[in-house]
Every structure is written in C-alpha cells, then in structure tokens.
Q: What sequence folds into this?
C-alpha cells in the first residue's frame, strides 16, 4: 500500500508565486511512490489548521513555502497526538532554517530527501502559547532584516547591507529608536539592562543579520542560543559591532551571547516580536521553553545534530 502525503503549499511564497512554480512541485511529487493530497493556503493560519486537523490521516506532512509557512505547519504538527515526519521544500525568500539544516533549494533535490527517508530530530521553541521553528527576535535589527527587499540583501550580502544602512541612516536611527529595558531570567541567572536587539534561536543563521560559528550550535540539544545587543551610542559603535558579528566574535561590550533551556523576559511596555520572520504580537511578558527533539524533519546527515 502506498504511503500518504499531505502537501501544504503557500502559493504566495517566493518561487510559488507563479503557476509554474506550483506546477514544478506537483510534477516532481507525481514521480514518488506516494498518494498525495494538496492543500493551498489562502490566509494566515491555514497551514496550521491543515496540519492539525488532517495530519494524522497521512504518513508525511510536506510544507512548500518559506519560513513563515513552515512555522505554521509545525505549529499544527506539534499538536498531533502522534508525530508525523515533516518534509520541507523551501520556496520562500529567506529560508534560514533550510540553509542551516542542509535542505537544498532545488525542488527535485528537496523532494528526494523524502525518498531517502533520512530524518533528523529538531528542537522547537515555545513562545508563551505559540511555537516557533528557529528564531524569535525583538528590536531594530529584526525590523531591518524582514522589511528589506531580498534582491538588495542578495546583492550586498546581509551583513554588508546592515553596515551600509547604519552608515547611511545611522544618526537618524539612533535618535529615533529607543532601547528596550528588560529583565531577563535564564538558566544562569538574571540580566537587567537596555537592549536594541535580541534573538532567541536554534539556527546558525538568524534573520540574515548574522551567522554563528557551527561549533556553538546544536539543533537538538535542548538549548536555545540567546544573543542580546546592548544600547548603541554611536554609528561608529554600531559598525564596529556588526564587523565583529561578521567574524563570529560575540565577545564585546555591545553583545551578550549564551545558551539556555528556559527564558523569561519582562518589559514595562509591550514589545513587538517576530517569530520565524512573521509578526508575533506585542508582549510585556514572554515565557520561553524548548520542546527537545519536538519534530522529525527530512534532512541530510549534518554535524549540527547530536
């Protein structure tokens, strides 16, 4: 008996915006020894509903879209009483997670991972009552990255773009953006300070802003990587910090980097968050926890997995 696959396609993501992109996916899937049903998203939350309400009827859930579509799919899949392995065809504009775990951008190659049955377990983050796949961010850096046209970021390179942005607009930005005062409780203690940007992640690449040394990250070790950027007082200060980031050097006055399993963040006023590149709401209190090895995802052998 053929295995059954639920295929969730976001027709508005990057390479599936044209009918040709969706046709390519269907064409490749038709070569597999699977019976598959396709569900296309039309609004936010559809992918979550499809995975949650239909996923148990299938052997595999395949997500075709960007980081946001995968986020929704995973939010539905983790609510299933029995795990279902997740396949991912990254057709979005950023695809940070796919890049980290080694899922190719080529549609045919990504589908072939399902044929090989090569899977890895992957940690999922929990942000209050929502899950996220690889990153939750707050502050000015996240706004830059996710609102920047992809062609411009590709042309300059992410870090180069950020440095150029600070050089061109830095004085105006530093005057207009206020640091966020936070109380942060983590496994090793309590931090209270003013921050411009923060990322709680399980990835080697975050929002296109920076990449971590691969030796500092394991994707199923039950820990987050927490990076915090303190108040920046000058454009030169900001550029120096970004240059350090390019070299994976996070040991300086402006940057704090650590690992933690649990995290609580409190602010006096609501702070806007981004979850996997999508708006996560404004909150004064955020409770983070990690779902260790929460999902199985089709992906190549990779030294980032324990």
A:
């Amino acid at each position: 008996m053929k295995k059954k696959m639920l295929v969730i396609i976001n027709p508005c993501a990057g390479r599936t915006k044209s009918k040709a992109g969706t046709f390519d996916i269907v064409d490749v899937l038709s070569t597999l020894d699977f019976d598959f049903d396709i569900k296309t998203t039309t609004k936010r939350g559809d992918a979550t509903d499809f995975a949650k309400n239909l996923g148990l009827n299938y052997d595999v859930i395949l997500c075709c879209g960007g980081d946001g579509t995968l986020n929704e799919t995973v939010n539905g899949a983790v609510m299933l009483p029995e795990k279902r392995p997740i396949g991912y065809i990254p057709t979005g504009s950023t695809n940070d997670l796919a890049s980290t775990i080694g899922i190719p951008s080529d549609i045919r190659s990504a589908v072939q991972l399902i044929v090989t049955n090569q899977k890895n377990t992957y940690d999922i983050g929990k942000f209050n009552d929502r899950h996220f796949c690889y990153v939750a961010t707050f502050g000015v850096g996240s706004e830059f990255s996710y609102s920047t046209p992809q062609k411009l970021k590709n042309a300059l390179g992410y870090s180069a773009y950020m440095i150029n942005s600070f050089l061109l607009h830095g004085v105006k930005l530093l005057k207009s953006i206020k640091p966020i005062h936070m109380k942060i409780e983590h496994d090793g203690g309590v931090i209270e300070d003013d921050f411009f940007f923060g990322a709680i992640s399980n990835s080697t690449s975050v929002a296109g802003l920076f990449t971590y040394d691969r030796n500092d990250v394991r994707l199923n070790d039950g820990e987050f990587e927490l990076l915090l950027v303190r108040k920046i007082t000058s454009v030169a200060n900001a550029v120096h910090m970004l240059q350090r980031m390019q070299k994976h050097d996070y040991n300086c006055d402006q940057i704090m980097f650590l690992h933690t399993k649990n995290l609580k963040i409190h602010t006096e006023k609501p702070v806007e968050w981004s979850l996997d590149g999508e708006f996560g709401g404004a909150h004064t209190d955020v409770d983070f926890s990690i779902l260790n090895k929460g999902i199985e995802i089709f992906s190549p052998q990779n030294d980032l997995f324990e």
In short: The two ends are 34 Å apart (CA to CA). The first helix runs from residue 19 to 29.
